Amino acid sequence: MRIEDFLFEVAEVLLYPVLIAALLAILIVLVELGALAGEAYRRRGRGVERLEFGIAHVKAYLGVGDTQSALTTIRTLGYNKSMQEALEALIMQRGLPDSEDRIAKRLAEYDYRSLKRLERTRILVRMGPALGLMGTLIPLSPALAALADGDVQRLTDDLRVAFSVTVAGLLVGMIAFAVSLVRDRLYAQDFSDVEYVAAALDELPTPPAVHASQPHAAATGVTG
To answer: Where are the beta strands (DSSP E) in 56-202?
Structure first.
């Protein structure tokens, strides 16, 4: 078998996997678009005034030693589970040995989780057009063969598939790019809010270090 024939067979085998992948990409990007709408809705009314109001209440609770109420209040400043856990860590890690490093690590982990969330649509920004291009080029070979044989129906069907996959791939890339841009801004704002809360709580007197016989109680503030 010639190399050209082998590559032709490989391309033929890839046609249906590419079509299925393009359909899955459309479904995924539509789900991500709906998820973005939900994320934006949860952040309605956000602002510095709301953030400072919550911080004032957290400080007041911590000032009288009411850690549980402070945790409940600080959770309301988070817009998702990862952000809430990072905010809780600002309270739970205070007073522990190397608390500054512990808090910095929790903030870094929160930032990494945000980047991981962004990867879903960032991948689709490139993958969508790539699938569209593959889905365009693969059917062109049999379409040209059908043209040479005078099979107009086969030529028409192959060209319809090629152009349809092109449109689908470009649509996936466009939506994924828009979702990624908006999410990048939202998550940057979230991280800025967490840093602002951390700076505000850093002004409070550091509570006494937790006794070594209570490691479990000190570590229950953050998961993952």
So the answer is: none
Q: Tokens representing 124?
A: 């689709």
Helix (H, G, I), strand (E, B) or coil at 220: coil
**Comparing C-alpha atoms, which of 31, 33, 79 is closest to residue 179?**
33
Distance from C-alpha of 40 to C-alpha of 140, rounded to nearest angstrom: 42
The answer to whether 87 touches 222, Cβ cutoff 8 Å, is: no
Structure tokens at 41: 């809705």
Q: Is pTM beyond 0.70 here?
A: yes
pLDDT in tens, the chain (224 residues): 678 777 778 888 888 999 999 999 999 999 999 999 999 999 988 889 999 999 999 999 998 989 999 999 999 999 999 999 999 999 998 877 888 888 899 999 999 999 999 998 999 999 999 999 999 988 888 888 888 888 888 888 888 988 999 999 999 999 999 999 999 999 999 999 999 999 998 877 666 554 433 443 333 343 33
The Cα 79–Cα 82 span in angstroms is 8
Q: Contact, 178 vs 121, CB < 8 A?
A: no
State both tokens at 178.
């828009």
Which residue in this structure is represented by tokens 């291009």? 133
CB within 8 Å of 158: residues ≥ 6 apart:
139, 140, 142, 143, 146
Which phi and psi angles does 204 have, rounded to 5°? -75, 150
What is the rounded distance in angstroms from the CA atom of residue 103 to the CA atom of residue 105?
5
